[in-house]
Amino acid sequence: MPASAAAMASSNQSRLKEAMTGGSGASKGPHEPDGELTDDTAGGAELRLSEGASDDEQPSSSYLEPAAGDHPSSLYGKYTWRVPNFFNTSKRELRSQSFTVGNYKFYILVYPNGCDVCNHLSLFLCVADYDKLLPGWSHFAQFTIAVVNKDPKKSKYSDTLHRFCKKEHDWGWKRFMEISKVLEGFTAEDTLMIKAQVQVIRDRPSAPFRCLDPGYRRELLRVYASNVDSICSRFVEERRTQLQVLLGQLPAFRVFWAGLPESRRAALVSERSDLVLKGIVKKFFNEKEVTSTLVMDALFSGCQQIEAAAVASPTALLAGGAAPV
User: Alpha carbon of 124 to those of 132, 172, 221, 267, 273: distances in Å?
Assistant: First the structure.
């Protein structure tokens, strides 16, 4: 499970050990970066490839579109970190150079022999210079970290979603993979290659919003498509059950409805669009669920289609006409 390196010192003994060995990912002192970091954002192959993938952008929407400069592609970064002499290092922790995504600085932190665990490689994404940021700061991001194998199909990936803040300024996996597994094709001439994709998210509770860079969304969808389908199917089944209960009470409901004045009926069958959209976000967006961003992107596109249909033919939509799919 993803966890914060800063929160792993669970006893006085472990805290003392950290103090004697130079601290954890939360240490504030200067630290020379290790290895070489390259920026792959502008190009390069996707980490998890699949034939026939496509990602057609939907037309813009008047009230759903994010502010200028907040499009997910401008808040996304992809980086490769090569760590030489990995098995011969005497350092407890290794850090990449810092990199900027969405005006926020991050770096990758790896513990070759584990952070408070044995026989495991620990990997974290950390906010750089977090102690110098303004009080109350927070960065919300989804990220993927991969340790690359010579055989791309055997590369090890992990995805997570986290709101970085002063208390949780680093996040990742203390048991990313077993050390013994690293010897099975994960190093070349004692160099370990780590890839990271970071998507800063400008979330808002008022309406469905875009979350992911198109390429990153494609990759995540290949992994989590069945999860997204399950979430949607479960929601439909819940609503179907509720409707079946109402259908069983239909005669009594007809009597109730017939006794209402026309103005009251109109009020009951209408709802403010802003309240509906806010309710959708509250229902489907969970900061702890990796699939939330995929669901939110799908809902964003769905709302665009409904709005486009309403603009093109408002009377047909109100009369039950089908929106384009």
Answer: 20, 4, 23, 52, 40
